């Protein structure tokens, strides 16, 4: 169940499937913007309005500058008005200070808004992932999720923080400055601004190019995330097989492709600069010519001309900024569409409207005519019937791929069968609340799962109300207490990422204590003692026997000793039950089980079943692998 495999698709296959095996629906920029406004801006409308007001004020301050220039020229230099000269500086100072405070407020509130959007999106994404269907999570690359959290959301943040205020601010500046120009001389204004529609057309033309390059770049970053997490998770195998260079090359290809797409984005963004600059140059040249000619003819004053030219020179800066913000907006909306695709993912395993918590008795289990396949047209279980009275210990055995883990997946309702029902204490799991179905069982996997937290928190995982005494009692029962007390911080010691500061056996004992603490009537085990040494196994075996008492136990068994102890042995073959009975009954019947026990094994469609009856054999294999790793590292 825990072998390490790599997603080693060819470069072409990666290109086709670059989004982590997950399609992003094509949402238009407008649709994405509408959703962001609806979900994130409207709920904070007051703050947004205040921000816009502050921006408008700051823009109006800029719009007032040409008039000040005009008055200054006409009143001071031409009319020689001394009172005006004395009064003007304080007015300028007040206007500028008020304008800069308004700008400060606008920037801070904009920063809050964009970071708030990011925080909300990250929380929603995490909740979505935590509650998502196992099937969907397994079929989507983890790198895709990591990159959405880290990269896509950051792209949205950058876009939001740079565009929310900047678009409004620059737009308002354009409006005020154009207004000032039209007010001063509408003919001159028309000449100066004639080039603007051409710039608008150019920016629109760039849109699809920008969308394409941003989408590809974000996809590649997702692929990079996948390869980084995959390589780190599998580092022992990577080194043991001397594949460091191979993995580095795989990463390098993706990094180079990302660079190409990023450069395409950069070029598209940068292109808007020279174009608007050139158009601005044409407009201003025309204005100087026409305005100068009017001046020579005596139709305009020097102040009038200077005021107008100030506005004309100022207006092209925000226009240029708007063009580049348009690209930023596209980057943000492409990233947002990828986030929304995850948030909108439909859930297949859902609760019915009138779902009720399971009423648990002893944890009796029943499979009634269950047909299930991960792909609906490829059934893994076929019309599967199994009745397990409360308190029975069942060993599931069969060839690899026979469907043993699938049985456990259905009891936990990670998936729903296409036909038939799974019942716990007589109640269909589909009519019960999902939480109560999951709480009915404790799961122990072959590879223990620990979180980067303290030992105490790991044991208490899923039983948060348990007292410290109960935690210690569970650890004692799991033969973990002594080694925990030997650690410098005892129960407060941290276990490291995925428990890597502990040995395999120690990790398993912690996981075992966690299961002990949980008072679930059903225990689902994937032969969890295989990582323990002889002495610890003997101690834990005793504890395990206590834990198993009065519980319904389903164990995917690999060891003869475990199989022998089961009340019922269920031999699975090709998605059906080939044989069912106690060890003695099955041996006596002389069928498949008897042949397995005779050491002949069985080659079914999924491969051979392996019985591990000798811990020493397994330990020797692990020691050989470790020697190889040490040799490779040396
Ligand atoms: N998430 C999944 N998506 C698609 N197919 C799956 C998935 N999980 C398992 N399968 C397929 O379903 C079949 C049964 O798998 P299952 O894990 O139940 O077998 P198993 O008997 O537990 O095997 P093993 O002993 O090797 O762990 C296999 O053919 C496997 O390839």
UniProtKB/TrEMBL annotation:
Belongs to the ABC transporter superfamily. SUPFAM superfamilies: ABC transporter transmembrane region, P-loop containing nucleoside triphosphate hydrolases. The keyword Transmembrane applies. PROSITE patterns: ABC_TM1F, ABC_TRANSPORTER_1, ABC_TRANSPORTER_2. InterPro entries: AAA+_ATPase, ABC1_TM_dom, ABC1_TM_sf, ABC_transporter-like_ATP-bd, ABC_transporter-like_CS, P-loop_NTPase, Type_1_exporter. This is ABC transporter permease. Its main location: membrane. Gene3D superfamilies: ABC transporter type 1, transmembrane domain (1.20.1560.10), P-loop containing nucleotide triphosphate hydrolases (3.40.50.300). It comes from Prosthecodimorpha hirschii. Pfam families: ABC_membrane, ABC_tran. PANTHER family: ATP-BINDING CASSETTE SUB-FAMILY B MEMBER 10, MITOCHONDRIAL, ATP-DEPENDENT PERMEASE MDL1, MITOCHONDRIAL. One of its GO terms (molecular function) is ATP binding. The chain crosses the membrane at residues 47-71, 83-102, 186-203, 270-290. Keywords: ATP-binding, Membrane, Nucleotide-binding, Transmembrane, Transmembrane helix, Transport. SMART domains: AAA. GO terms for cellular component: plasma membrane. Residues 365-599 form the ABC transporter domain. It is a multi-pass membrane protein.
């Amino acid at each position: 169940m825990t072998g390490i495999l790599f997603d080693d698709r060819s470069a072409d296959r990666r290109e086709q499937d670059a989004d982590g095996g997950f399609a992003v629906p094509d949402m238009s920029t407008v649709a994405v913007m509408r959703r962001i406004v609806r979900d994130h801006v409207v709920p904070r409308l007051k703050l947004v309005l205040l921000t816009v007001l502050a921006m408008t004020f700051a823009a109006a301050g800029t719009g007032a500058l040409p008039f000040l220039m005009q008055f200054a020229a006409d009143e001071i230099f031409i009319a020689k008005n001394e009172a005006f000269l004395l009064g003007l500086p304080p007015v300028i100072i007040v206007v500028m200070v008020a304008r800069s405070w308004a700008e400060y407020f606008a920037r801070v509130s904009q920063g809050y808004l964009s970071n708030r959007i990011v925080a909300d999106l990250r929380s929603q994404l995490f909740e979505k992932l935590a509650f998502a269907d196992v099937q969907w999570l397994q079929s989507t690359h983890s790198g895709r999720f990591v990159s959405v959290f880290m990269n896509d959301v950051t792209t949205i943040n950058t876009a939001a923080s740079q565009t929310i205020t900047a678009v409004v601010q620059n737009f308002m500046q354009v409006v005020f400055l154009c207004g000032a120009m039209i007010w001063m001389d509408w003919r001159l204004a028309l000449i100066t601004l004639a080039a603007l529609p051409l710039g608008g057309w150019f920016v629109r033309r760039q849109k699809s190019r920008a969308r394409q390059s941003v989408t590809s770049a974000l996809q590649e970053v997702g692929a990079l995330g996948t390869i980084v997490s995959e390589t780190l998770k599998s580092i022992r195998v990577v080194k043991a097989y001397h594949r460091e260079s191979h993995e580095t090359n795989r990463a390098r290809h993706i990094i180079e492709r990302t660079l190409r797409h990023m450069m395409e984005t950069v070029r598209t963004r940068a292109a808007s600069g020279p174009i608007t600059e050139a158009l601005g140059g044409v407009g201003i040249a025309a204005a100087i010519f026409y305005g100068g000619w009017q001046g020579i003819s005596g139709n305009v004053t020097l102040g009038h001309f200077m005021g107008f030219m100030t506005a004309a020179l100022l207006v092209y800066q925000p226009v240029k900024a708007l063009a580049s913000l348009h690209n930023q907006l596209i980057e943000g909306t492409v990233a947002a569409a990828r986030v929304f695709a995850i948030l909108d993912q439909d859930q297949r395993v859902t609760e019915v409207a009138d779902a009720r918590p399971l009423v648990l008795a002893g944890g009796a289990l029943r499979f009634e005519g269950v047909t299930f396949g991960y792909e609906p047209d490829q059934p893994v279980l076929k019309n599967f019937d199994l009745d397990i009275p409360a308190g029975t210990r069942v060993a599931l055995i069969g060839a690899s791929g026979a469907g043993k883990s699938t049985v456990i997946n259905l009891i936990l309702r990670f998936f729903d069968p296409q036909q038939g029902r799974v019942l716990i204490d007589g109640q269909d799991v589909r009519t019960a609340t999902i939480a109560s179905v999951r709480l009915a069982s404790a799961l122990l996997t072959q590879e223990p799962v620990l979180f980067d937290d303290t030992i105490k928190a790991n044991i208490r995982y899923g039983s948060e109300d348990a007292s410290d005494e109960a935690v210690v009692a569970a650890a004692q029962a799991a033969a973990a207490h002594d080694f925990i007390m030997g650690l410098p911080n005892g129960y407060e010691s941290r276990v490291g990422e995925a428990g890597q500061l502990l040995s395999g056996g120690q990790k398993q004992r912690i996981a075992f204590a966690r299961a002990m603490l949980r008072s679930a009537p059903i225990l689902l085990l994937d032969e969890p003692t295989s990582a323990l040494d002889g002495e610890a196994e003997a101690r834990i075996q005793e504890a395990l026997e206590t834990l198993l008492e009065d519980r319904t136990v389903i164990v995917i068994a690999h060891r003869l000793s475990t199989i022998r102890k089961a009340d019922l042995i269920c031999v699975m073959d090709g998605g059906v039950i080939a044989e069912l009975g106690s060890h003695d009954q099955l041996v006596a019947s002389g069928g498949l089980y008897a042949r397995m026990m005779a050491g002949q094994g069985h080659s079914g469609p999924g491969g051979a079943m392996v019985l591990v009856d000798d811990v020493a054999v397994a330990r020797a294999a692990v020691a050989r692998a470790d020697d190889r790793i040490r040799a490779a590292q040396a």
